[in-house]
């Protein structure tokens, strides 16, 4: 069942949304959040370092700028997929990924709204030795709550979470989380 009227088919001017996000200093604007659809525009986070494990497939379109999409293979190796401006990427559910692009860049993301009981996970690895550092998990019922920023705050507010148990390196706290 639709939460919108069958006659409601809104049009969004994406560049205008991007300008508003920049002016407001925000990172994400949800465009649609319906029964099985979630679409949002995101600005880059210059401090992004975690790998998101999404229970849904994601389709990402680089509106402005270039993204280095860091992924982790099933073997645990980190690879980088370069998505140029105008490029479209499909990231399957369960693939740890970290979309890294500057704040002036814009990304359009379309994915499935979370089902009851599904959790998004955010994982960090040591930048020195690549050992697993920490994982945050959250059931995302409303993407407007910006779960990425919340996970970042919990991680970066804790020196214990940022300290590698293997090599002792302490990941520096991020600014502007």
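^ structure tokens above, recovered residues below v
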């Amino acid at each position: 069942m639709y939460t919108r009227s069958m006659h409601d088919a809104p049009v969004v001017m994406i560049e205008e949304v991007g300008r508003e996000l920049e002016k407001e200093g925000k990172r994400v604007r949800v465009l649609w959040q319906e029964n099985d659809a979630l679409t949002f525009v995101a600005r880059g986070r210059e401090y992004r370092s975690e790998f998101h494990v999404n229970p849904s497939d994601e389709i990402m379109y680089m509106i402005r700028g270039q993204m280095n999409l860091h992924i982790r293979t099933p073997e645990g190796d980190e690879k980088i997929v370069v998505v140029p401006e105008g490029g479209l990427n499909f990231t399957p559910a369960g693939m740890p990924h970290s979309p890294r692009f500057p704040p002036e860049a814009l990304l359009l993301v379309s994915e499935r709204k979370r089902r009851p009981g599904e959790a998004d996970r955010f994982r960090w690895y040591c930048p020195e030795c690549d050992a697993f550092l920490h994982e945050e998990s959250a059931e995302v019922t409303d993407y407007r709550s910006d779960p990425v920023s919340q996970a970042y705050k919990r991680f970066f507010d804790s020196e214990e979470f940022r300290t590698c148990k293997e090599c002792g390196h302490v990941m520096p706290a991020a600014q502007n989380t």
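The chain has three helices and eleven strands.
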